[in-house]
């Protein structure tokens, strides 16, 4: 799928932008602080109703304004288009799809799946398991329609159990929530494990191409491997009661990547981490394409950062080969060689104004 029309209002320094991207490669260039990342941020908002940079939306809304808006037209397989729009303010999220107001932001993600590779991408590896769970859950959400209700039911049961633990409720009341936690937790675990199994061959292929070798991939379900979830909850019951929260479960799961028996984050350079994390994104896109017969939009912020010319070229050729509609930013177009990668559109950004270069 591709974004064939984009309008942005009041997103950081982008006061009013209207562009018609092409369905393959869109190069966005401009000096530092011109507004390139803000343009990608606006597309991300249209998909996930949140920024990839900062959590409080007030930082993203243009100073002295109360809300921002992003509107897009998405073309799917077969040429049909969907109009999506989002308005966000401090206490406001208004989403419209084909003229209808929708309540849930997950509806946006279903219409416009977006992936991002940016200079922070090494966080997937370097920082806590939360980032790797988010990575997995993006993929499972898009390829397995049962995922969202299961995820929501699990987290509801978890919230109730944690509230009962904090309130020092009687054990029988806490155990009441265990039944639901176990049922939905096992379903969530199975969905994620199946997803990791499907993703791993793609990840191996992209790691080989970008790094020359592939890490071992292992899904850690969020409790000790020598027992099942029920036994883990039972074993941790007293500790959970003492500390007022649930220590075991899919909310503590992790995706462990090891090379030569060591977690990759312990010995990979920044550039290697960027390549590995990019391989993870490319694997997700390939697996998505396999299952859905569609391709997400891929945002690549500051492609050249951390990469030498050879690795930059290798990554670019895999990004192009993925078939995704690409939005790639760089300070100079000369850093990105798109020879032979037609069609390409180039946009120049200056002080928040975006012009197509013809
Ligand atoms: N809420 C806001 N309102 C207005 N302007 C903002 C706001 N937040 C950030 N800015 C400004 O928006 C400009 C664009 O920032 P952006 O990060 O998009 O630039 P960029 O082109 O990606 O730069 P770089 O190449 O340095 O990464 C910056 O000058 C920044 O100070």
TrEMBL record:
Give all residue intervals belonging to the RecF/RecN/SMC N-terminal domain. 3-353
Pfam families named among the record's database cross-references: SMC_N (PF02463)
DNA damage recorded as keyword: yes
Residues given in the record as ATP binding sites: 30-37
Listed GO MF terms: ATP binding; single-stranded DNA binding
* Cellular component aspect of the GO annotation: cytoplasm
> What's the chief localization of this chain?
cytoplasm
Q: Name one GO biological process term.
A: SOS response
Q: Which UniProt keywords apply?
A: ATP-binding, Cytoplasm, DNA damage, DNA repair, DNA replication, DNA-binding, Nucleotide-binding, SOS response
Q: Where in the cell is it found?
A: Cytoplasm
The organism's superkingdom is given as Bacteria
SUPFAM superfamilies noted in UniProt = P-loop containing nucleoside triphosphate hydrolases
What function does this protein fulfil? Answer: The RecF protein is involved in DNA metabolism; it is required for DNA replication and normal SOS inducibility. RecF binds preferentially to single-stranded, linear DNA. It also seems to bind ATP.
In terms of NCBIfam families, this protein maps to: recf (TIGR00611)
Tell me which family the UniProt entry assigns to this protein.
Belongs to the RecF family.
What is this protein's name? Answer: DNA replication and repair protein RecF
Record the organism: Thiohalophilus thiocyanatoxydans
UniProt gene name: recF
């Amino acid at each position: 799928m591709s974004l064939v029309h984009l309008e942005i209002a009041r997103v950081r320094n982008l006061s009013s932008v209207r562009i018609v991207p092409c369905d393959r490669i869109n190069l966005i260039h401009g000096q530092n602080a011109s507004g390139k990342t803000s343009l990608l941020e606006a597309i991300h908002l249209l998909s996930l109703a949140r920024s990839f940079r900062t959590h409080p939306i007030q930082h993203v809304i243009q100073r002295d304004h109360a809300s921002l808006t992003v509107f897009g037209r998405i073309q799917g397989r077969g040429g049909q288009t969907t109009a999506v729009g989002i308005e966000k303010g401090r206490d406001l999220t208004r989403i419209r799809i084909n003229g209808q107001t929708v309540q849930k932001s997950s509806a946006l993600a279903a219409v416009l799946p977006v992936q991002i590779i940016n200079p922070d991408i090494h966080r997937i590896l370097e920082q806590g398991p939360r980032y790797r769970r988010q990575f997995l859950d993006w993929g499972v959400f898009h390829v397995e329609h049962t995922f969202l209700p299961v995820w929501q039911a699990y987290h509801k049961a978890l919230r109730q159990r944690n509230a009962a633990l904090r309130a020092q409720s009687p054990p029988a009341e806490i155990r009441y929530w265990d039944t639901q936690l176990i049922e939905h937790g096992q379903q969530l675990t199975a969905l994620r494990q199946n997803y990791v199994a499907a993703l791993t061959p793609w990840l191996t292929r992209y790691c080989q191409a970008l790094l020359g070798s592939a890490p071992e991939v292992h899904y850690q379900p969020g409790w000790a491997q020598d027992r099942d979830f029920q036994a883990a909850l039972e074993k941790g019951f007293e500790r959970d009661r003492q500390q007022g929260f649930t220590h075991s479960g899919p909310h503590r799961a992790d995706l462990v990547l090891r090379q030569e028996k060591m977690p990759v984050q312990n010995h990979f350079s920044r550039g290697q981490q960027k390549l590995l994390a990019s391989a993870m994104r490319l694997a997700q896109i390939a697996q998505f394409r396999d299952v859905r017969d569609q391709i997400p939009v891929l945002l690549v912020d500051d492609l050249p950062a951390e990469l030498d010319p050879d690795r930059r070229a290798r990554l670019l050729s895999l990004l192009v080969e993925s078939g995704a509609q690409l939005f790639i930013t760089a300070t100079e177009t000369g850093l990105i060689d798109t020879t032979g990668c037609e069609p390409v559109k180039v946009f120049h950004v200056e002080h928040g104004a975006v012009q197509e270069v013809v």
